[in-house]
Amino acid sequence: MHRNNPTEPTVQLRTDQFRRHAEKRGLTTDQEVAEHLGVSRTTVMRALNGQHPPGERLIAATLAAFTDIKFEDVFQVVGGEQAVRPAAEAAAV
């Protein structure tokens, strides 16, 4: 993953959860996911394999297309002083 400053927070895609939500909608390939979200297949692939953090367009498209999920269901903030964790994980701590 590309990060300019390792102490600054960045967003990561929770790939297993993202794929689960996509598959629940019958989207089984990166191309199908990309078309459904209105982004390029390359954007989806790079976010899924960790080459690039998800950009605002992918984040917004995901939340708009998958209306039954919240940000923290498929994304996580890492780095910085405090990471944002999904509510279920935070409750387990």
General description of the model:
The protein has six helices and two strands, in the order βαααααβα. It has a two-stranded antiparallel sheet. The protein is mainly alpha-helical. It is globular.
SSE diagram, text form:
Elements (H helix, E strand, L loop, with lengths): L9 E4 L1 H10 L5 H8 L3 H8 L7 H10 L5 H4 E4 L8 H6 L1
Antiparallel strand pairs: 1-2
Helix pairs in contact: 2-3
Keywords:
93 residues, mainly alpha, two-stranded antiparallel sheet, 6 helices, 2 strands, 49% helix
Percentage of β-strand residues:
5-15%
Structural class call reads mainly alpha
Largest sheet: 2 strands, antiparallel
Count of strand segments: 2
H/E element sequence = EHHHHHEH
Determine the N-to-C terminus distance: 27 Å
List the uncertain runs.
none
- Proportion of residues in helical segments: 40-55%
Global mean pLDDT? 87
Strands of the largest sheet, in order across it? 1-2
Please work out how many helical segments DSSP would assign: 6
Rg, Å, rounded: 13 Å
Short description:
With 93 residues, the chain is mostly helical. Helix content is 49%, strand content 9%. α2 packs across α3 (41-48).
